[in-house]
Design goal:
About 35% of the residues lie in helices and about 20% in strands. The protein has about 400 residues and is an alpha/beta fold.
Length: about 400
């Protein structure tokens, strides 16, 4: 592929590169599913003499294309329209090249009552960002800086001089009312974003967040924000039923598929796990009853939702405990001396990272389809267990 010497391009050079680079076509990785985040304001601002004032939505009409080379020469910036334009362009490009790409805004979902915390969570969960920096918007600049710190690939559309410290991101200088120029440049830049995401996914080393113990609040937030699937592999469903079953039920009622894999209370392996947890021989039955009762309670709570649920029990010794919500994975440590909920856990922000599939996703799948695993509740078909793309309608 032809690559320019600088990320800052004119509309003419972008048009030339688009023609050369795409003559042979381009295809994304099979079944690629990327989530982008839009950094920029939503409300329209009028830029006059370096000062920006909010224009109410009631008076917000179409953009005006006032002439002038200065980025602050009195023309009107319709940020809502820019956001919609970028979302459409991203989705169209993904569809044309064999993948699914979405561009979320802070309004798409709320991770926290505090807006800054919610935006940081959006950026943490995003595969890439697209930022519109115009009208001296300091909030967008701060959010872009956070995305850089998190090493997120990004495209920066900037209305004005390009700062020298935006190295590492694709930077496109635009007029804030020139959609056509941006539209010509975006496809080629999205190709570069795709390449960067694949490169990150195949990296031999990457960072994960470590928690000193399993975080009930974090799991609750992950349940509340998931849109595709919930997969739980846990020896003992006691904490699931005590802390999360009502939130899980709410998501299942929205037709988000749920599958739970837990140890068979009647398995001979229950004895071994009970001994590890310092149950005496005479009290092993207490541990067995605990597993049975929590499983029964889960079935009672999910009664009536069988079409979207399947619970299976496995006959094996527990080696993993994992929670999967969409493309995020919380991995809990299994040890000989204490309950998993008291041990360190690790948050993997992207299940497509190298090694994650074979280490955790395939482990779950193998155990799920094992001959010694049996269904105890639900009628969810196996073909409904594949996570559907974000934004796709429920089956």
């Amino acid at each position: 592929m032809v690559r320019g010497e600088t990320a800052v391009e004119s509309g003419v050079s972008a048009r030339r590169r688009y023609s050369e680079d795409w003559a042979a076509g381009y295809a994304m990785k099979k079944d690629a599913l990327y989530r982008g985040f839009y950094i920029g304001p939503f409300r329209k601002k009028r830029v006059v003499d370096d000062q920006a004032e909010i224009v109410s939505h009631d008076n917000a009409g179409d953009r005006t294309d006032s002439p002038g080379d200065s980025p602050v020469s009195g023309y009107e910036i319709n940020f809502d329209k820019w956001c919609q334009f970028l979302q459409n362009a991203v989705q169209k490009w993904g569809k044309e090249h064999g993948g699914t790409i979405t561009l979320e805004t802070a309004e798409h979902r709320h991770y926290d009552y505090a807006l800054d915390v919610s935006i940081k969570k959006h950026i943490d969960n995003a595969d890439f960002v697209i930022a519109l920096i115009a009208a001296q918007n300091l909030n967008a600049a701060l959010e872009l800086g956070y995305a850089q710190g998190r090493e997120k690939p990004g495209i920066v559309l900037i209305d004005g001089p390009v700062p020298s410290d935006l190295q590492g991101m694709i930077t496109v200088r635009i007029k804030a009312t020139d959609y056509d120029s941006a539209g010509l440049q975006l496809p080629n830049h999205l190709l570069r974003i795709d390449e960067e995401i694949v490169k990150r996914q195949n990296a031999e080393r990457f960072s994960v967040e470590c928690l000193s113990r399993r975080d009930v609040i974090l799991i609750g937030d992950m349940i509340a924000s998931c849109k595709q699937c919930i997969h739980i592999l846990q020896t003992n469903l006691q904490t699931v039923t005590a802390d999360h079953i009502h939130a899980i039920k709410q998501r299942v009622q929205e037709e988000i598929p749920l599958r739970i894999l837990t140890m068979d209370p009647q398995s001979a392996w229950v004895n071994e796990r009970a001994r590890q947890l310092n149950y005496s021989a005479k009290d092993i039955g207490v541990y067995r009853d605990l597993l049975e009762n929590s499983l029964d309670f889960a079935k009672i709570q999910l009664d009536g939702l069988q079409d979207y649920v399947r619970i299976k029990v496995y006959n094996d010794f527990p080696t993993q405990m994992t929670y999967r919500f969409d493309q995020q994975l919380l991995v809990c440590t299994v040890s000989r001396i204490t309950l998993s909920r008291e041990n360190a856990s690790f948050l993997v922000d992207d299940t497509s990272r190298k090694g994650i599939q074979s280490s955790f996703i395939d482990h779950f799948s193998h155990l799920w389809h094992s001959d010694s695993t049996r269904t105890v509740f639900g009628e969810l078909a196996d073909d409904a267990l594949v996570p559907r793309p974000i934004g796709a309608p429920a089956a």
